[in-house]
Specification:
The protein is mainly alpha-helical. It has six helices and no strands.
Length: about 140
């Protein structure tokens, strides 16, 4: 019984698109419109994978692994030293800061409305607003 590209892809753990590319590259043969011979196609694919694995020199593979392990160790060390922090921690801190900024600024009208309602001098209104805004921002700065 012949297999479709989809069936062969499922059996090999690849996509149908990859199967079509393997056919174009001459790695897997499709004997006709009926589909793939399962045994032949799987053997051809396994031979292809074996050639690819054998083409990677063991020395290169070891060097890449050592390099990756070294990079991972350096990253872990930097995390332990506190030079890197979790993205979630940064997001939480940024959200908290933004929330405090919003609350601080939104509270200004409630604090200054009675003062400004009685004030007729534009210069004094400006001074009061600037004072309140500076206070809110300095509070956030720290």
């Amino acid at each position: 019984m012949a297999w479709s590209s989809k069936q062969l892809a499922s059996a090999l753990g690849v996509t149908s698109r990859r199967i079509n590319q393997l056919v174009v590259d001459g790695i897997v043969t499709r004997p006709g419109k009926a589909g793939f011979d399962p045994e032949t196609a799987v053997q051809q694919y396994l031979a292809f994978v074996d050639r690819r694995v054998a083409s990677i020199p063991l020395k290169d593979a070891r060097e890449r692994k050592l390099s990756a392990d070294a990079a991972l160790s350096e990253l872990k060390l930097e995390v332990e030293r506190g030079r890197f922090v979790a993205v979630d921690d940064v997001k939480k801190a940024a959200f908290g800061t933004a929330h405090r900024v919003r609350d601080s600024i939104l509270n200004i009208p409630d604090r200054v409305a009675p003062i400004l309602a009685a004030e007729m001098d534009a210069g004094k209104v400006h001074a009061v607003l600037m004072y309140e805004l500076r206070q809110a921002l300095e509070h956030l700065a720290g």
